[in-house]
Amino acid sequence: MTKVTKLSPVTSWNRVLNAARRTVGKPPLDKEPSNSWKAKMLLAEHSPIRLLEYEWTWEQVPQWVTVHFVRHHIGCEKFVHTQRPDRTGSQIPRGEHMQGELNEMDMTANAQEIMAISRVRLCNCASKETKEAWVLMLNELEKIDPILVSKCVPSCVYRGFCPELKCCGYAKTHQFKEAVEKYRKIE
Questions:
Q1: Are 163 and 156 in contact (CB under 8 A)?
Q2: Which CATH number do you get for residue 144?
Q3: How far apart are CA 168 and CA 149, in angstroms?
């Protein structure tokens, strides 16, 4: 079963605050910004949020699920355990490895990319296993940054409508309307 074995901040919200202050000619502060300010910055997607970074490790993740995460390329880096026999000492030729084999993967991403990945991987049209791996990561992230996780929503909630060619129907429910309202909150 896929699990997140490590998740930690690489940078702090203070870095985001000071970068935002720089853009309006204000001096840096040595403090954590308010939750309301964080929510506003995340919803606005102003450039300083790209300075907030996290890193994590997935273990026992199917190889084909790592391929889904490798597709994300802006504001993140991925490090997937190789299947090369010359590096791993495996007796299994590389071409005989199966997509469903379990693997390990480290990933680092900034706040904007974490939200962008969420839009794709939290969608009900996404692969069930990939969505589960992403939810595991978000559950761990919520322990240290609940404001960021509150802005990690599927694309339909972010946009206010379903952009998929084959809609799952969620955008026509009362729960969807509640999710949109919750997402847009800044308090």
A1: yes
A2: 3.30.1360.170
A3: 23
**C-alpha–C-alpha distance, residues 32 and 181, integer Å:** 26
Both structure tokens of 175: 């729960």
Q: Per the domain annotation, does 126 fall within a domain?
A: yes
Considering only CA atoms, which of 41, 183, 37 is closest in space to residue 119?
183
For 22-38, write each residue's pLDDT tens digit. Answer: 999 999 999 999 999 99
In a domain, residue 170? The reply is: no
Torsion angle, CA of 14/114/74/63, rounded to 10 degrees?
A: 140
Q: Domain span at residue 56?
A: 3-89+97-154
Any domain includes 34:
yes
Domain assignment present for residue 182? The answer is no
Residue 44 in 3-state DSSP?
Answer: helix
Q: How many domains does the chain have?
A: 1
What tens digit of pLDDT does each residue of 103-144 get? Answer: 999 999 999 999 999 999 999 999 999 999 999 999 999 999
Closest CA relative to residue 103, chosen from 63, 56, 55, 57: 63
**CA-based nearest residue to 56, from 143, 158, 122:** 143
- Write the single-letter amino acid at 154: P
